[in-house]
Amino acid sequence: MSDNCIFCKILKGEIPSAKIYEDELTYAFLDISGDFYGHTLVIPKKHCANVLECDPSTLQAVMETTQLVSKHYVDNCGFTGVNLFNNSGVSAEQSVMHLHFHIVPRSENDGYHISPINEGNKVDLSEVKAKLEVK
C-alpha cells in the first residue's frame, strides 16, 4: 500500500467509505461524488497505479469483482444494465493513481448520458489500424 494514496487510506480504515463488497483481493465502494445513483468503484487491495502497470492476476481479480457487483445490481437491485469505465494515466483523466473501475448502474430512461459522442472526428480507419494493430 501507498502512504499517500487516498484509496490505500480507505483500505486501511483511515478514511470512511460505503462498502458494497469486499474479498481477499478487492474492495468495492460507493464513489463520494454522488454524480450517479449507485456509482461504485472497484479497486485492488494491492496498490498499483492503473491498468498499464497492474499485474495480470490483480487485474483479473478486479475484473471478477467488477462483474460480480455489476451482475448483483442487475439481478438483485432492479437495474437493467451498467456502464463500466476506467481511466489509466493522467492524459486519460485518471484522478486517483490507484487502479479502479467505475460501475454506474443503469435503468431505462434514467436520463444519464455517459458514453462520449465525438461526431466531428472523422478518421481513416485503415491508417489508424496500421498504427495501432498489435503485432
How are the secondary structure elements laid out?
Blueprint: H1 6-11, E1 19-22, E2 26-30, E3 40-44, H2 56-76, E4 81-85, E5 101-106, H3 125-132
Antiparallel strand pairs: 1-2, 2-3, 3-5, 4-5
Describe this structure in words.
With 135 residues, this protein is of the alpha+beta class. The chain has a single domain, classed as HIT family, subunit A (2-Layer Sandwich). Helices cover 26% and strands 19% of the residues. It has helices at residues 6-11, 56-76, 125-132; strands at residues 19-22, 26-30, 40-44, 81-85, 101-106. A five-stranded antiparallel sheet has the order 1-2-3-5-4, with helices on one face. Strand 1 (19-22) and strand 2 form a beta hairpin.
Key features?
19% strand; 135 residues; HIT family, subunit A; alpha+beta; 5-stranded antiparallel sheet; globular
Oligomeric state of the chains present here: single chain
Full CATH superfamily name: HIT-like
Tell me the span between the first and last alpha carbons.
Answer: 35 Å
Fraction in helix: 25-40%
- What's the order of the H and E elements? HEEEHEEH
Structure described in brief:
This protein has 135 residues and is of the alpha+beta class. The protein has helices spanning 6-11, 56-76, 125-132; strands spanning 19-22, 26-30, 40-44, 81-85, 101-106.
